[in-house]
Amino acid sequence: MRLILAVLRPSQVESVRRGLAAVEVTRLTICDAQGRAADGSLVQEVTLEIAVNDDFVDRTTRAIAAVLAASGESLAGRLFTLPMAEAIQIYRAVRGPEAV
């Protein structure tokens, strides 16, 4: 299991969400964030948090990267993939890959 974090511009969220839906990734958390521009000023950003099983890591990162690359913007976004020790669905008392 992996936790994928994508940091992008608010205008890119809907395009990325559609790209993820096309590869059957529909569960994600969207968080407001702030980043620093080169001049030190704050810029509005969005962080997507996506927990996926190992067989979805490649398709998820490729879908996000493709949308960001197609935007043609320099500094379009950042993508991080982190190991995830455990996932728990509290309402069903399910643990592990099935909980993702």
Write the layout of secondary structure elements.
Elements: E1 2-8, H1 13-22, E2 29-36, E3 42-52, H2 57-70, E4 77-83, E5 88-89, E6 94-95
Antiparallel strand pairs: 1-3, 1-4, 2-3, 5-6
Helix pairs in contact: 1-2
List keywords for this structure.
globular, alpha+beta, four-stranded antiparallel β-sheet, two-stranded antiparallel ribbon, 100 residues, 6 strands
Summarize the structure.
The protein has 100 residues and is of the alpha+beta class.
Question: If you had to describe this structure to a student in words, what would you say it looks like?
Answer:
- The protein is an alpha+beta fold and 100 residues long.
- It is 24% helix and 37% strand.
- The protein has 2 helices and 6 strands, in the order βαββαβββ.
- The protein has helices at residues 13-22, 57-70, and strands spanning 2-8, 29-36, 42-52, 77-83, 88-89, 94-95.
- The strands form 2 sheets. The protein has a 4-stranded antiparallel beta sheet, with helices on one face. A two-stranded antiparallel sheet has the order 5-6.
- The longest helix is centred in the middle third of the chain and has 14 residues, at 57-70.
- The radius of gyration is 14 Å and the shape is globular.
- The model has no long low-confidence stretch (mean pLDDT 92).
Describe the biggest sheet? 4 strands, antiparallel
Strand order, biggest sheet?
2-3-1-4
Unreliable sequence segments: none
Gyration radius, rounded: 14 Å
Mean pLDDT: 92
Helix content: 10-25%
Number of strands: 6
Class derived from helix and strand content: alpha+beta
Query: What is the N-to-C succession of helices and strands?
Result: EHEEHEEE
Distance between the termini: 8 Å
Task: Tell me the β content.
Answer: 35-45%
